[in-house]
Amino acid sequence: MSDNNKRGHDDRQQHHKPSGSNLAIIILMSVLVLVTALSLIYFEIQVRSLTNLNGDKTDYSRHYAFVGDKSSTFLSSVYSAAKKEGSANEDYVEFTGRDLTTSYSVHDLMKIAISSGVDGIIVNADDSDDMSESINNAVSAGIPVICIGTDSYGSSRESYVGISYYTLGQEYGKRIAELGREGNVDVMIVASPEEHTTGQNLVLSGLSDYLGSNVTNARYDIESQVLGDGGMFSTAEAVTDLFSGDELPDILVCLDETSTTSACQAVVDSNHVGDVSIFGYYVNDTILNAVSKQVISGTLTVSTEEIGKRAVDCLDEYIRNGFVTEYVSMDIESVTVDNVDEYESDSTAEGSSDKEAE
Fold first, then answer.
1. SS3 track for 317-334
2. What secondary structure letter does DSSP report for 18?
3. ∠ CA(229), CA(247), CA(226), 5° rounding?
4. Are 52 and 278 in contact (CB under 8 A)?
């Protein structure tokens, strides 16, 4: 063989030999596919081999996926109620991804639920195009979807179980008017990116309409702001920066649990208790403690037990009848220093239920 032919032969061998980087990518993709497959298999095995407390096998008629941030106190409480209601109705409600060591985005968890072929999905949605696409993909696959917490406008979801955002704004307006402020009053509405949806605009509209239609001695300048990039620590840092700035609003309205909890801590750390009136959303131990000590003026919340129960009932009704009401409104509850003791007791009870659900 001539030298030229040998070189050509060697060049072809080298050309077909995978480079180190390509080989690493192939291995990585193979591992990811394997992990995903094993996760789905484990997911199905759990459903098919469930046992009750007595060790007897339990049969379920339907398998529902609960999709959302597993670190959220709000969602943990909703899931606990959904699982309880499901057990009574022969439904198995699975908190998708809760037992996995890796944290996945809500959209990835939706893909896992769809691939698992569940009978229905309950999701803490948002108003993004990606969420609409995920929901539409599920519905196209024959899986009905119920949104909780936040609605997904324009998607194919079957129903939304939650609060009326406009009514929420009206409730905040009522609480602000009760402060009896005079003169020019700066009001700032804040939320983390996940809660920055069409709903936030409706809250702003409801709040403005209430303050505009009720006679007060104040002139309100209302603005809204998104805090952080979506992570819990990012939102907390953004709230801390807000309280360390030169100018604070007279009234701060937090529209989600993360920003409310962060504000409770930041106002104390910055020695601004009493300088700004804070109204939050939802309840946890930190928020309730802040209300009790009058660190914040109050918080609005909704019954997580009722949301979880109604979400499961909506899926059952849709599967049974082929239709369900598109909107199930939840009552908004106000928590102040006058009634905080009742919610502190409920919070303790819910905490015990959450541990049992896990």
1. HHHHHCCCCCEEECCEEE
2. P
3. 20
4. no
Closest CA to 350 of 160, 101, 76: 76
Which of 29-33, 324-328, 354-358 is predicted least confidently? 354-358
pLDDT of 58 strictly over 80: no
Domains of the chain (ranges, CATH numbers): 60-162+304-331+345-357 (3.40.50.2300), 165-294 (3.40.50.2300)
Beta sheet of 62-67, edge-to-edge order? 91-95, 62-67, 120-124, 145-148, 159-162, 327-329
Report which of 259, 158, 156, 159 is spatially closest to residue 200, judged by C-alpha positions.
259
3-state secondary structure of 145: strand
Percent of the chain with pLDDT over 90: 57
For residues 154 and 179, give the distance between their C-alpha atoms in angstroms, rounded to a whole number: 38
Evaluate whether 93 touches 86 at the Cβ level (below 8 Å): yes
Neighbouring CB atoms inside 10 A of 105's CB total 13
Q: Which amino acid is at 94?
A: E
The total number of residues shown for the chain amounts to 358
How far apart, in whole angstroms, are the C-alpha atoms of residue 213 and residue 73?
A: 36
pLDDT-based confidence at residue 12 (cuts at 50, 70, 90) = very low
Judge whether 252 and 222 are in contact, CB under 8 Å.
no
CA 179 – CA 277 distance, rounded (Å): 9
- Tell me the backbone φ, ψ of residue 229, rounded to 5 degrees: -110, 10
Q: Hey, what amino acid is at 106?
A: V
The pTM is what? 0.76
**Measured distance CA(204)–CA(194) in Å, rounded:** 17
Distances in whole angstroms, Cα of residue 275 to Cα of each of 270, 271, 272, 297 = 11, 9, 5, 11
Paired sense of beta strands 277-281 and 298-302, if any:
parallel
Q: How many CB atoms lie within 10 A of CB 75?
A: 24
Q: Which of 347, 332, 334, 335 is nearest to 162 (CA)?
A: 332
Sign of CA pseudo-dihedral 266, 334, 358, 135 = negative
Q: Pairing between strand 218-226 and 251-254? A: unpaired
